[in-house]
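Look over what follows to help learners.
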Amino acid sequence: MPDNPLLTTLLQKLDEPAARFARLDRYFDGTQPLTYLSPDARKALGDRLTAVSVNVPRLLVESVAERLRVTGFTGIDLWTDWLANDLDQTSHILHREALCLGSAYAIVWAAEGRPNVSVESARQVTVATDPGTRRTVAALKRWETKTTTEAVLFEADQITRLRANSTGATTAGFRVIETLDNPLGVVPVVRFANRTRLLEDGRSEMADVLDLTDAVVKLTTDMLVSSEYTARPRRFATGVELEEEDVLDADGNPTGETESVNPIPEGSRAMVSENPEAKFGQLPGSDLSGYENAIGVVMRQISAVSGLPEHLLGIGGDNPQSADAIRVSEAALTARAEARQASFGRAWEEVAKLMVAVRDGLAPEAVHPRIAWADPSTRSVAQEADAVVKLFSAGLLPASTALARLGYSEQEITEIRTARRSEALDVAGTDLSRLLS
């Protein structure tokens, strides 16, 4: 292994959060263990109840991620390269990854003279930052093939490819395969950190609801156990003599022993007895409404700490809500999404700088893009269109800005403007070929 303390530090840093990431992945996938299931309940249920998933963590991540939609950039012409790198699709995956694990990354490099952007997981990429400026000074990506472990060390002046001739290599066994100059002069790796405090090192969006989700799963499990054993009404009979049946061995042959059994089959719809002293009755099933109330209490706590409105959590929906009431109930979730737009937006602007620098041969600091996001609030198309048309009619917005407010991309706006010019010329009867001749 090359004698490089920076490489060793980054390799170790990449492995540090592995256990935390594994736990977060289980909650996101809904495969976390049944935390509060008692041994007696587990024994009584046998193999009939192995897992219960009330996947609130994934709901929270998806609810925030679906409100993070990049619609374009101002100050630069980048949308064609953005689409060429499939970032209109993979940007959503990056947002979801950052919200789930607390961090995600984008690597920008050149491919045949054009910018090439790949979105990366925090499981494979990490960065080193200057504690004074908080700027990235180096980055590392490590992944496995069928027979080797590959790594790339990104620095401001060079890119180093390394390889270990075995799978599962962590900090040992790597040798340098190739070293390339870095003409960008900066580390071409951008971190998307989901943080709400200054010195926070990326926090999962799910962190506040994990324990509360365990509580919901526990109550739901108890409700299912009660439903199995006590919620069904039980019938009883007194004064009825039990019948004796032969006890059979494993081969179905009588053993010579007998056992007392209920003469009335469990599924019988009619119970008959010749004994005049026999009495029949029924025990009521247990009421499960207490579990519903308890789950509702925990769900409201989840709503309070996460910003998820109650109607998304399946509570408080006895009466249909109006569109305005839904928007008001989603105000906290919308504010959370806007905060993520602010933090992720700066990272996307760094990615845009690197893309333009690769494409045009400029220094990244000479590029000044501004990102545009779709409105994260829940508004109907009719309401949004009505508001934008009123602003346009009053002369407060130009047509291009109005179209952008409606969620159209830069390319779509250009196509619409071109089509409108063509239609205007057709209506006027203008023949462009004559004007050019």
